[in-house]
Amino acid sequence: MQQILNAKKLNKYFTDPEEFHVIKDVSLAVNKGEFVTLTGKSGCGKSTLLYLLATLDTEYNGSIDINNTSVTGLSQNKLAQFRNEHIGFIFQYHFLLPEFTVLQNVMLPALRLGKHSAELIKENAMKKLHQLEMAEYAHKLSSKLSGGQQQRVAIARALINNPDIIMADEPTGNLDSVNTESVVHIFRELASEGNTLIVITHDEDIAKKSDRVLKIVDGNITDNIYN
């Protein structure tokens, strides 16, 4: 199997108000097409670990390679460009721009990347919205959607640049059970299509539907369970 992410001996410290060792010598490899979930109690370090893997936090010791590129030590400008092209990130809160339409929100990362014409980006964005059953809302302001609909748009936005890895931090944390099940179904479909996912969740049902569960306790991976 092709390895898409390789992290070695990651250590992360918080220094305010006093030094705290939050990620402790974590090594992790993820293969292309895997659906991996990170689980653990609040404060265990799973969100911190995900932010390191997503290059959103660069203050750490160790090394991270993504798609055969060493991202450790890259400048913030190069990291921003790398993230936009290679990583699709889904937050617990959707962070859509309320004054933009659904279509405009989805197109934005691709417009920033600048690899394709606006016309082609629009076409691709509509394909993603069709995939997520949100095409009929394309020209509606994102602020007028329900929470479940907004999270679907956020997923479409994360997919627009066809990233190597999709990462999500509690993407169903603000959703009811029906919308949670819908998002999980979307993730399973994405994985079956060869997409790689790393998802933080407190929901055991979601974890059971992933390919592998990593349990984080006190900044360490204590269990590595294949479903």
What's the helix and strand layout?
Elements: E1 3-14, E2 20-31, E3 35-39, H1 46-53, E4 61-66, E5 69-70, H2 76-86, E6 87-90, H3 102-113, H4 118-131, H5 147-159, E7 165-169, H6 177-192, E8 196-200, H7 204-208, E9 212-217, E10 220-226
Parallel strand pairs: 3-8, 3-9, 6-7, 7-8
Antiparallel strand pairs: 1-2, 1-4, 4-5, 9-10
Task: Write down the overall geometry.
Answer: globular
The H-and-E topology, N to C, reads as EEEHEEHEHHHEHEHEE
The helix fraction, in percent, is 25-40%
Count up the domains.
1
Q: Beta fraction of the residues?
A: 25-35%
- CATH-derived architecture: 3-Layer(aba) Sandwich
Kindly report the name of the CATH homologous superfamily: P-loop containing nucleotide triphosphate hydrolases
Q: Can you give the mean pLDDT?
A: 91
Low-confidence stretches: none
Query: Given the structure, what is the number of helices?
Result: 7
Number of E-type strands:
10
**Main sheet attributes: strand count, strand direction, barrel closure:** 6 strands, mixed
Radius of gyration: 17 Å
Describe what this molecule looks like in 3D:
It is a single chain. By secondary structure, the protein is α/β, with parallel strands linked by helices. The chain has a single domain, classed as Rossmann fold (3-Layer(aba) Sandwich). It has helices spanning 46-53, 76-86, 102-113, 118-131, 147-159, 177-192, 204-208; strands at residues 3-14, 20-31, 35-39, 61-66, 69-70, 87-90, 165-169, 196-200, 212-217, 220-226. A 6-stranded mixed β-sheet has the order 6-7-8-3-9-10, with helices on both faces. The protein has a 4-stranded antiparallel β-sheet with strand order 2-1-4-5, covered by helices on one side.
